[in-house]
Amino acid sequence: MIEQFIELLPELNKSFLETLIMVGIGLLVALIVGLPLGILLFVTDRDLFLENRWLKSILGVVVNLVRSVPFIILLVFLLPFTNFLLGTTTGPVSASVSLSVAAIPFYARIVESAARDIDRGVIEAAIACGASPWLIIKDIIFPEIKPGLISGLTITAISLIGYSAMAGAIGGGGIGDLAIRYGYYRYDDFVMFTTVILLVVMVQVIQYAGDFISKSVKKS
User: 29, 30, 139, 203: which has the fewest Cβ within 10 Å?
Assistant: First the structure.
């Protein structure tokens, strides 16, 4: 068993790195696009300072539409777009396109939900004092939802790890690809067991780190 593990180690390291690349890109895009989208969904809501019923409805429909599509279908559906964008549909960077598209609305809803927990009286007081929308977002909304943003990133990262395993089914690389090529196709239980253990460890580490950072931010 030890010899088998040593033999598998190079492939395991490569797959682990590919999974990190996929999840990392997906998280970065979720933060860059999903965070402002979630804030926009909140501030354009009814009785808020940027209330816009049409914009809120359109954004809500688009977000819900993407979230309602099972990831494996979204993965296949976006293959032509991925090929147009990168010139290939295989590899971790290509898989990260679908992961990013899935992560954006997922994280946006988490951000919106976190913002809804803010006491609206604080926002109303800031408006009464003449604060600009940007000032309210920067100095009131962001500081209040920081722990929720960290927790949301943790949840998103864990979901992306699961999605990345599916991406391996169509040549995305990563741990899922390793499990399918070496474990499923070759009927190798050791490989399947090893990849499952690795995924579990990754999830536990991310969850622990996310909880720790979220609590630290909350105390500060």
Answer: 139
Give me the domain span that covers residue 88.
2-219
Distance CA 62, CA 59 (A): 5
Could you give the CA distance from residue 28 to residue 59 in angstroms, rounded to a whole number?
Answer: 21
Q: Give CA–CA dist 157/150, Å, rounded.
A: 11
Side chain identity at residue 208, one-letter code: Y
DSSP code at position 54: H
Residue 74 phi, psi dihedral angles, 5° rounding: -60, -40
pLDDT of 60 reads 93
For every residue of 70-123, DSSP letters joined together read -HHHHHHHTHHHHHHHHS-S-SHHHHHHHHHHHHHHHHHHHHHHHHHTS-HHHH
- List, for residues 21-56, the tens digit of each pLDDT value: 999 999 999 999 999 999 999 999 887 878 888 999
- 99, 22 in Cβ contact below 8 A? yes
Cβ burial, residue 23 (10 Å; 0-12/13-18/19+): buried
Q: Can you give the pTM of this predicted structure?
A: 0.91
Could you give the number of structural domains in the chain? 1
DSSP state of 69: S
Residue 53's CB: how many other CB atoms inside 10 A? 10
Q: Residues near 217 by Cβ (< 8 Å), separated by ≥ 6?
A: 146, 147, 150
The conformation of residue 169, written as its DSSP 8-state character, comes to G
